[in-house]
Automatic annotation (TrEMBL):
<protein>
    <submittedName>
        <fullName>Two-component system chemotaxis response regulator CheY</fullName>
    </submittedName>
</protein>
<dbReference type="InterPro" id="IPR001789">
    <property type="entry name" value="Sig_transdc_resp-reg_receiver"/>
</dbReference>
<dbReference type="InterPro" id="IPR050595">
    <property type="entry name" value="Bact_response_regulator"/>
</dbReference>
<feature type="domain" description="Response regulatory">
    <location>
        <begin position="4"/>
        <end position="120"/>
    </location>
</feature>
<dbReference type="Pfam" id="PF00072">
    <property type="entry name" value="Response_reg"/>
</dbReference>
<dbReference type="InterPro" id="IPR011006">
    <property type="entry name" value="CheY-like_superfamily"/>
</dbReference>
<feature type="modified residue" description="4-aspartylphosphate">
    <location>
        <position position="53"/>
    </location>
</feature>
<keyword id="KW-0597">Phosphoprotein</keyword>
<dbReference type="GO" id="GO:0000160">
    <property type="term" value="P:phosphorelay signal transduction system"/>
</dbReference>
Amino acid sequence: MPKTIMIVDDSASLRQVVNIALTQAGYEVIEACDGQDALNRLDGRKVHLVISDVNMPVMDGITFVTELKKRAEYRFVPVIMLTTEAGEQKKLAGQAAGAKAWVVKPFQPATMLAAVAKLILP
């Protein structure tokens, strides 16, 4: 059974690029356009990994990760932040919220897939 990855980003084109890379690598993908949309889509189904942007309307990525980790069934789901933010403060905030990896845009799909492969639970 394929592993499920949630992509949370307000850019439809970026979600599409990530979705294609993940689908070709054999993953199942759920898309959300911001943190609130992502929380609404997490209806108890198993998600093996989350890839989230930081800067989004409605609910930003750091707040989303904080809220995600409050939910018992998603507390241990690894999160990769995929963002234009390269500043140390943002990285520390992401880490404090529970993000396990930080990939800066523009990114190479291979780099992202390598991070996914390292973090996804068997």
